[in-house]
Specification:
It is built from nine helices and no strands. It is mainly α and 176 residues long. Helix 3 packs antiparallel against helix 9, helix 4 packs across helix 6 and helix 4 packs across helix 7. The two termini are 16 Å apart. This is Carboxymuconolactone decarboxylase family protein.
Length: 176
């Protein structure tokens, strides 16, 4: 059961009302997470800005979805995990790779290396080494793609932690 109520453009106030009204006018409907985030215009605005920015990331989307699966498998947000698994499937990531991502790896050594980096960013960023970054470059990742991993992890921490706080689950309503 959700712990926080959903807001609409009619029930939200101030900046949140404007943000929700804009989203509804552009998309027709909004998910539970976004409508619940509206309790804090700072959180909602920050989420929307980071989400838009990460849409311009150079990191391949099939890789970022696997990173998201790995992070959400650890963080425990089933709503986010389901959303990222479905997105990975829609992009053609096979079930074996989705399962590997849940355990923090990949059959492809280059993807396994970038997932490892993401999990270190999530768990213990002080453990990242120069050699690790050099190896990622040798796999063909640009500095921009490597930096994008921080954004993917940060976005997942924000959405997962929010959903867990708000009590949002796949059973509690609509998607993110």
């Amino acid at each position: 059961m959700p712990r926080l109520t959903r807001l609409t453009p009619d029930t939200a106030v101030g900046a949140s009302r404007d943000l929700l009204a804009d989203l509804v006018s552009r998309h027709g409907q909004i998910g539970d997470m976004v409508s619940t985030m509206a309790h804090s215009p700072a959180v909602l605005g920050g989420y929307l800005q980071l989400s838009r920015a990460m849409g311009r990331a150079k990191l391949d989307r099939r890789i970022s979805e696997r990173i998201s699966i790995a992070v959400q498998a650890l963080q425990g947000c089933r709503l986010c995990l389901d959303s990222h698994v479905n997105a990975a499937r829609a992009m053609g990531v096979d079930e074996e790779e989705i399962e590997r991502a849940r355990t923090g790896t990949s059959a492809d050594p280059a993807i396994a290396a970038i997932i490892t980096l993401a999990l270190q960013i999530y768990r213990e960023p002080t453990s990242i080494t120069d050699e690790q970054v050099i190896a990622l470059r040798e796999y063909g990742y640009s500095d921009r793609a490597i930096a994008d991993v921080v954004g993917v992890v940060a976005l997942n921490i924000l959405t997962g932690a929010f959903n867990l706080l708000a009590g949002l689950t796949p059973e509690s309503g609509t998607s993110v």
